[in-house]
What we know:
- It contains 3 helices and 4 strands, in the order ααββαββ.
- The protein has helices at residues 3-18, 23-74, 100-104, and strands spanning 84-88, 95-99, 109-110, 117-118.
- The protein has a two-stranded antiparallel ribbon with strand order 1-2.
- Helix 1 packs antiparallel against helix 2 (23-74).
- The longest helix is centred in the middle third of the chain and has 52 residues, at 23-74.
Amino acid sequence: MSFISEKVAYLDGLADGLKLSEEGTDKVLRGIIDTLGAIAEALEEQDESIDDLSDCIDGIYDELDDIETAIDEEFDGELDEDDFIEVVCPHCGETVYFDEDMIDSDDGLICPNCNETIDFEIPGDDEEDE
């Protein structure tokens, strides 16, 4: 039982002990206590959901670490820099790397950080001069 539930239970017991003489006051007080009880129950359910989501996120982080480790082991911790072209995004300023297949794509290049299209010329590419 959470702290809020304990407080609502205390109020419920207090209302029982008061033995209010006016029927309207008793109904209002009981309604307020019932509402507080429902709120406390909903908060407890939300806390459980948040805990479940936190556990899921921790699991995802663990799996991503495993994937990163596997990639590092496969490539000996380094990727061959000759296979990638380094580009500084003109929109967000982040340095991103694209492989040759991505550069040759008709879809264009999209920055993975800001999702903006990156336009650039490949050094030594004389297709525009022809």
